[in-house]
Amino acid sequence: MKTLAGTSGLIRLILRRDRIVLPIWIVFLVAISVSYVKQYGDLFPTPDSRVKYASNAGFITLYGELSGTSLGEFVTWRLGFVPVMIGLISILTVIRHTRVEEETGRRELLGATVVGRHAQLAAALTVTLGANLVLAILLALGMHSQNLPLSGSIAIGIEYAGTGWLFAAVGAVAAQLSASAGTARGIAIGTLGAAYILRAAGDTSAHTHGPLAWLRWLSPIAWAQQIHPYGQNRWWLGVLVLAATVVLVAVAIYLSVRRDVGSGLLPDKLGPADGNLGSPLALAWRLHRGLLAAWTVGFALLGLLFGGVAKGVGDMMRDDPGIQEAFQRMGGASGLIDSFLAGVMLLVGLIASAYAVQATLRMRVEESSGRVEPVLATATSRWQWAASHLVFSLLGPAVALLAAGVAEGLAYGAAIGDVGGQLPRLIGAALAQLPAVWVLAAIAIAIFGFFPQLSMVSWAGPVICILIGLVSAGVATASWIRDISPFTHLPSLPGGSVTAGPLIALLAIAIVVGFAGLIGLRRRDLPA
Amino acid sequence: MPAAISTEGLVKSFGQTYALDGLDLTVESGEVHGFLGPNGAGKTTTIRILLGMTRADEGTARVLDGDPWSDATDLHRRLAYVPGDVTLWPNLSGGEAIDLLGRMRGGVDKKRKAELLERFDLDPRKKARAYSKGNRQKVALVAAFASDVELLLLDEPTSGLDPLMEEVFREVVQEISDREGRTVLLSSHILSEVEALCDRVTIIRSGRAVESGTLSELRHLTRTSIQAELVGPMNGLAQLSGVHDLREDDGRVRFDVDTDQINPVLRQLTEIGVRSLVSQPPSLEELFLRLYEPEAVK
Q1: Residue B130 near residue B154 (C-beta atoms within 8 A)
Q2: Which of A517, A519, B30, B117 has most Cβ atoms within 10 angstroms of its Cβ?
Q3: B80 contact residues in A (CB cutoff 8 A)
């Protein structure tokens, strides 16, 4: 096993580097999942209320089909998005410790020590698979502690860990394909997205007894979901997921011995000998365009999805006061469909804030990689440089939200035969999220401007707002907690009334905080 | 004409450690100035202050008669910078990066760029991630040399270049200095490079300039080693100031003498009577080794 020499040392290195982030996501996802048991048990105590809540088309698209009416099955269904998050985190972890290491040249440094050919991949997979296993065990114990049956609790652990394992292996394969970590991430996350869409399409079709239910069997996410924890506990599907993982890992190993360290299987193309980039803005466009395109397409798909199911949602929840109440807490507006659409817009806005923070932090990436230095050594001022990035971190989310609004307006308008009426309403509703999105972007600018080493803390903004959104949609929450999130202060659109005051206040906060951050950036040293 | 670069008493600390501790540096217009010092002496910190990336805690710095911090943008039109470790955007080709940096500085001379690409033997179509360290270095060098600027700040610019390319680098620096009268601040560890290119050098250690001057001036600061066969006993030699490491072996003496103390020592030797004498001037390496050593300057 000479090809695995040094694996244990690399595992220790990975654990040392991820000693904070790894425990955080494990504990966070387990805690969220376990907390849902009591929340949703209290909200929907009867099988009848659960079936009603779960049988609307929007939820089926989001979370899948409810497999049974027991509390365990209901909670598992409602948590249907968590395995996708686990898959995403697993992909990112594996690529971070394989392809990123190669791209930065650190692998070379380590590879020259007594480290075998397969050690890096083996170490990255061991840690990721191990983290998923720990998550599964904690989750099973946590669920069992909420008086859910042990067998089902083990099954949900297998569902989660299985999804994580499988996509860790997808990440391992993607890392072999391209010499660029960004492209590898794109391939793997694209696969995850495709699996999610296949699952959503299959489940929606199955629910309406359509002909496309088989689509979900193409999706590994659905395989794990079809284990049906707390219901049938179909263990053989766990074996299927495990087998797929083994096959993918074998493929990754097969590919990795057929390439050189640092290169990919997809060849690098030659670029132009002369460039036409000539300004900080042109450079920023080049650096941000991929991100902008990906988010815009994603948001348009999201808009189509929700706009398409909105009518059905209204039909299904018309006669359940409990669900109406839940939705009104989430969106709070007159019509039921409007409150569903408003809730969707809130969700879209929250996701857009993650994009805003990600785009803002590109500045930190440029700085810490040293690429900002040659740029600022030209006749480009720090403000010009920052402004060229902020064009994308502020207007990029606007473009993505516009895409969501247009897609949702077209889809919902087509469904009820009123495109002309719904399109402007939903575009307005989407763009109304911007003040809150910009506040979170401004906080990221300020943190980057004053405390560049702490830039990653900016992610706390979207995470806290998403948590507040998730929790307050499910259970009554103290108003001071809800008030922390800028999204709480937005009008509930479509359908709600608009007052200018809070919007202006949010814009003012965004401007003041953002400018303060820019002043901080201008005054501080650029770390070498 | 005012000096291209002048700093007085620059101090910069990072937490507990002082990167610069009262640095004085003067680079006259039109000269190629060598900037030397051991690793961690503060060379890069100085250059970053001159670029306005870092602000000095104390002291003054002037670049091209402007303030490097507050006039950064205007000054950067007139200077070019090559870092010792070039990172580029992985998905941009080398040619794109050169044109981008050139345009943002105020324009690229296409003919000059083509000529430099040819001389440095660089394929501009490759993506930056496919370049080796030396080739990334060439991208930054071509971008800097192709722009029409008065001052070049070069921070260990030849790290990773092969000897042929090193030769090209020397030729280009000599051309821009001799024909075009540009000013160059060259931070380097390669003594032959410094000797070939630099009019004057400044040596820094622990954040202070320990010596500054032309190379021949600096040579006077160091020791000449002497071997002599004497007629009589070596009386009084050890008491002379400037004599170090005196050893006697069967009528032959060996010692090092501070170059500025050589006259009294020679007088003493001829008084004793000399049968043979070998004197070796200090090599550059010895000069630097002595100045780099922590205990060399009190």
Answers
A1: no
A2: A517
A3: 377
Which pLDDT score is estimated for A26?
94
Under 8 Å CB-to-CB from A471, ≥6 apart: which residues? A477
Tokens of B113: 């760029």
Which of these, A249, A212, A202, A218, lies nearest to A94 by C-alpha position?
Answer: A249
- What is the value of ipTM here, to two decimals? 0.77
- Residue of B53, B139, B156 to mutate for A, most A C-beta atoms under 10 A: B53
One domain for residues B230 and B204: no
Choose among A477, A463, A256, A219: nearest CA to A354: A463
Interhelix angle for A336-368 vs A280-317, to 10°?
160
Exposure b/e, B179-199, CB count within 10 A at least 16 = b: eeebbbbbbbbbbebbeebbe
Q: What angle do the packed helices A460-474 and A434-450 form, to 10 degrees? A: 140
Q: Is residue B178 in some structural domain? A: yes
Q: What is the CATH number of the domain that holds B28?
A: 3.40.50.300
CB pairs under 8 A between A and B: 129
Give the pLDDT of residue A40: 87
B21-69 per-position pLDDT tens digit: 999 999 999 999 999 988 888 999 999 999 988 899 999 999 999 999 9
Q: Which two tokens stand for residue A241?
A: 């997921």
Please state whether the predicted TM-score (pTM) of the whole model is above 0.90.
no
Q: Of B167, B195, B218, which closes a domain?
A: B218
Residue B36 within any structural domain of the chain = yes
| Cβ–Cβ gap B100/A371 under 8 Å | no
**Residue B59, domain extent:** 5-218
Question: Do the domain assignments include residue B182?
Answer: yes
Q: Both B195 and B258 in a single domain? A: no
Instruction: Kindly state whether residues B160 and B214 are assigned to the same domain.
Output: yes
Residue B287 domain flag: no
Residues B177 and B72 in one domain: yes
- In whole angstroms, how far apart are CA A395 and each of A133, A344, A379, A400, A462? 41, 21, 25, 9, 17
Among candidate residues B165, B185, B218, the one where a domain is terminated: B218
| Domain match, B157 and B14 both | yes
Question: Who among A270, A278, A283 is closest to B125 (CB)?
Answer: A270
Residue B293 distance to chain A (closest CA, Å): 26
